[in-house]
Design goal:
Elements: E1 3-8, H1 16-28, E2 31-36, H2 39-60, H3 86-97, E3 103-107, H4 114-125, E4 133-137, H5 147-155, H6 164-172, E5 177-182, H7 191-200, E6 204-210, E7 219-223, H8 238-241, H9 245-257, H10 268-277, H11 282-289, H12 297-304, H13 325-334, H14 338-347, E8 354-355, H15 356-363, H16 383-397, E9 402-404, E10 411-413, H17 416-428, H18 432-447, H19 458-468, H20 470-482, H21 486-507
Parallel strand pairs: 1-2, 3-6, 3-7, 4-5, 5-6
Antiparallel strand pairs: 8-10, 9-10
Helix pairs in contact: 3-4, 5-6, 9-11, 10-12, 14-16, 14-17, 15-16, 15-18, 18-20, 19-21, 20-21
């Protein structure tokens, strides 16, 4: 850095060694020597130089705004219209305007549309922020320690080194700014920094998108739901299907890929099933719709059963992680710990919902699952159960596992697209057969009614339990048949038939 030295002149009593040193320093460069004759002149020189330095520092901390230059951190302009997010956009705006929230974290699995929703909400709120909206993409940031630099760049500050955070705080303190922090999940360790910014700048509001919450005071979580899909059994009426947002998104993107594509009675059932199979995830639907130029809906639907390879080939201007659904899910998977990755892969064995005891019996090493035959999914707490709950909670927090609303014991599920990826990870390891065998054994035992459940009021509870676990029972039956365990499969099939026939009798 440049250095400024003040040297008294004349100085007849100066030590010759000091004179020699000054000459050597000046010859080396990087040092400017200012002569002065008395203290009054020295005071004037120092005051003037400090004024220049402060002015330069002030200019450095202002946003870079050259003539015609784009604003740093400007909100990206979307290339396609946003489909059916009016309710969510209004809800986010109400948190800011109506409830005074200053930190809102939009959470959800990869591909659900968190970034698009945050940007749409910011456009509607922009007029309320005198100093504008700034967008910071944290996806390229590899560590929490680099987040201050990314925010400084998004604000357009010429700042670096030890003064970087101070300059960001000084800039934001008097401002009324809406700051979007996109893809926060991989730099979660920077959450205390966001708390510091909010404490220092009362006019700052932060919209963060993340697959997990930041876990700091004042945070409002806003789970972003998938788009609405047609219920099972519907899909033959093209006009009726258009009321579902997932179908409208599919049609919009399919028409862009294959102009003239239209929904009719022949392709409507396949389109409805595609949207259901993809769980209403916008990214998955867009990737599928882009295939329409090559694959009619029925052919596309058939290929969804063959894996995720068909959900690829996204636009080249998208980040690499969003060009295929597998890349998007892999991004989330790589952020998990080893224990979380192991449990996530094992949970792929569940079809439909599952309870904590089922997960503990099937997915935890060294657990016998002796409660399986009792028909109750509530066991005594144990160390294994506590560890499982903690790890499962992390997966829920990462938006990879969804809690299902229930008045009884908690139940969970994986979206079908996420489950398919979990099964891929399970197949890559050495636990594929063991976990599936455990799953089949657990639900085979669960299907066996106890003596009290064969007659009397216990029958209806048993039937309800079988109905809730229907998908897992069917998956277990398929595994037993596919692996040649026909005797066990026959036993389960007989119980399933008895369940269905008894249900007809009980429910009229």
């Amino acid at each position: 850095m440049p250095r400024l030295t003040y040297v008294k002149t004349p100085a007849p009593d100066r030590d010759p060694r000091l004179t020699e040193m000054l000459q050597r320093v000046q010859a080396d460069g990087g040092v400017a020597c200012q002569p002065f004759t008395n203290t009054a002149e020295l005071q004037r020189l120092v005051e003037n130089d400090l004024a220049v330095l402060l002015s330069e520092r002030f200019e450095m901390t202002q946003p870079r705004r050259g003539a015609g230059a784009p604003l740093a951190g400007a909100l990206p302009a979307p290339a396609t219209p946003l489909v059916d997010r009016e309710r969510e956009t209004a809800a986010v705006a109400d948190l800011v305007v109506g409830q005074g929230a200053r930190l809102i974290t939009l959470t959800g699995p990869g591909g659900v549309g968190k970034s698009r929703l945050a940007m749409e909400a910011a456009r509607g709120l922009g007029s309320r922020f005198a100093d504008g909206v700034r967008f910071v993409d944290l996806a390229p940031v590899q560590s929490a320690e680099f987040v201050p630099a990314a925010i400084a760049a998004g604000l357009g500050l010429n700042s670096s080194g030890g003064r970087l955070l101070g300059d960001v705080l000084s800039y934001l303190c008097p401002k009324r700014v809406l700051l979007i922090l996109d893809n926060f999940e991989q730099v979660a360790g920077a959450a205390p920094l966001i708390a510091e910014l909010l404490a220092a700048a009362p006019g700052l509001v932060v919209l963060a998108t993340s697959r997990s919450v930041l876990r700091i005071n004042g945070e409002h979580e806003f789970p972003v739901p998938p788009l609405a899909v047609p219920p099972t059994g519907t899909g033959r009426d093209p006009a009726g299907l258009r009321q579902y947002a997932a179908v409208r998104l599919f049609l919009d993107r399919a028409d862009a890929a294959a102009p003239g594509f239209a929904l009719n009675r022949h392709n409507a059932p396949a389109v409805a099933e595609i949207c259901r199979r993809l769980d209403g995830l916008p990214l998955a639907i867009e990737l599928a719709a882009a295939r329409i130029r090559l694959l009619p809906p029925r052919a596309l639907l058939a290929r969804l059963d063959q894996g995720m390879s068909v959900l690829a080939g996204g636009p080249r201007d998208l980040p690499e992680r969003q060009r295929t659904l597998r890349n998007t899910l892999e991004w989330s998977f790589n952020l998990l710990s080893a224990d979380e990755q192991r449990l996530f892969a094992r949970l792929g064995v569940f079809a439909g919902t599952f309870g904590l005891p089922a997960a503990q019996s099937i997915c935890t090493d060294g657990v016998s699952g002796s409660d399986a035959g009792t028909g109750a999914e509530a066991g005594a707490p144990s160390d294994a159960a506590g560890t499982l709950m903690e790890t499962l909670g992390s997966l829920v927090g990462s938006s990879l596992v969804r809690p299902e609303p229930t008045d009884d014991e908690p139940r969970f599920r994986l979206l079908d697209t996420i489950r398919q990826y979990a099964l891929e990870r399970l197949r890559e390891g050495d636990e594929w057969t063991r976990v599936h065998d455990r799953h089949a054994a657990y639900f085979l035992a669960l299907a066996e009614p106890t003596a009290t459940e064969l007659a009397g009021p216990g029958q209806l509870a048993w039937l309800n339990r079988m109905e809730i676990r229907h998908d897992n029972l069917a998956a277990a039956l398929s595994w037993l048949v596919d692996t040649g365990q026909t005797e066990s499969a026959g036993s389960m099939w007989r119980e399933a038939c008895r369940c269905r026939s008894q249900e007809v009798v009980e429910r009229g």
